[in-house]
Amino acid sequence: MSPPTFKTIDDLEPGQRLLVRIDINAPVEDGAVQNNRRFARHAETIAELLGDDHAIAVLAHQGRPGRETFVSLEQHADILAEHLDRDVGFVADTFGEDALAAIDDLESDDVLVLENTRMCDDELPEEDPEVKAETEFVQALAPAFDAYVNDAYSAAHRSHASLVGFPLVMDAYAGRVMEAEYTANSAIQNREFDGTVTMALGGTKAEDLIPVIEKVDDTVDRFCLGGIVGELFLRAAGHDVGYDVEGTEFFDHQWDDHRETIERVLDEYGDRLLLADDLAYETDDGERAEQAVEDIEKETSYLDVGSDTADRYADLVRDSEAVFVKGALGVFEDERFADGTVEVLSAIADTDCFSVVGGGDTSRAIEMYGLDEDDFGHVSIAGGAYVRALTGDPLVGVEVLERDD
């Protein structure tokens, strides 16, 4: 993965009407959209554009058809207004007559949120950018704007109309989130480090992490494993963990699907793959307890790496020039089982190292446990795009920004 060649908002002339794609996909609880760090990040890009007298219409998605999270963006407009400390308009239409009329009324310094892009039939199918560029969605909206800005790095692995169609039919630029995320997340492929590089890998999906291990082995010196993936590797190493017990369904299907690959990777990378020495679980009276892995006969669900493992991983982080984090080492949402994740993050914050923290909700632990985001090199808001960046796989949403035509 080479450094980006896309134009950024630094290259924009002031005072234009802009179509800005952001990613404010958020949790929805009882119908209420929850504020998250994505709103704050994209608000910074929008505020900078407003400072150059642009008029802005915002494209974004929320959920998928058929899911409870598939809701209108009306609440998102209100949350964005809070972050911008200004009025933000909303129209319950994406590219029809109502949307085009609202866009035509935009003046310098205005912000308008268009309706959920995934409520449009043209948006969701994964198709080539050339196909998306010819959709009614793109063809109807593009003439209403002077330029397109893609700030939605976290969705850049998706070949959806709002992400890949517009750059083929109009001037296109990368926003600040797109620029910063791409630069930081691809550093593992683009930068050279003189000292030790450590990667903490956790979470729930072996199919996400195994390619990361194999693709970054020339850069990363050691991998600290935890979470469900860590248990699967412990099982491959001969320990009595890494399978489902009553009430869980995370392990057995992944073991069946990936056993040969897990065993091969464990054999091939040997001492560079660091596994937990102990694991934590919940006792019958609701307390945290720990067991050494060599003593385990699994009868319960393990929810975190143990204290010895957390301390060992933290010491390795402090001895590193660069640290990358993908996924949590335990169920950090429960304070009793946050030790592994928080110990590693705290060690990164205390160390003068290059660091990137990302992957799903992992970065949320920084805010939950009172850590300062400024103590980290970069805290990514991307999930799937972050994995692709780590492995060096192309991001179609970035590729179309780099086209010269």
Descriptive report:
This protein has 405 residues and is an alpha/beta fold. The protein has 2 domains: 9-182 and 395-399, Phosphoglycerate kinase, N-terminal domain (Rossmann fold), CATH 3.40.50; 191-371, Rossmann fold (3-Layer(aba) Sandwich), CATH 3.40.50. 35% of the residues lie in helices and 16% in strands. The protein has 16 helices and 17 strands. It has helices at residues 37-50, 74-84, 97-104, 129-133, 136-141, 161-165, 176-185, 187-190, 206-215, 227-236, 252-269, 307-318, 339-350, 364-368, 384-391, 396-399; strands at residues 17-21, 28-29, 32-33, 55-59, 89-90, 111-113, 147-150, 172-174, 197-201, 222-225, 273-274, 278-282, 288-292, 302-305, 322-326, 354-358, 378-379. It has a 6-stranded parallel β-sheet. Helix 1 (37-50) packs across helix 2 (74-84), helix 9 (206-215) packs parallel to helix 11 and helix 9 (206-215) packs parallel to helix 15 (384-391). The chain is elongated. The protein starts with 16 loop residues before the first strand and ends in a 6-residue tail after the last helix.
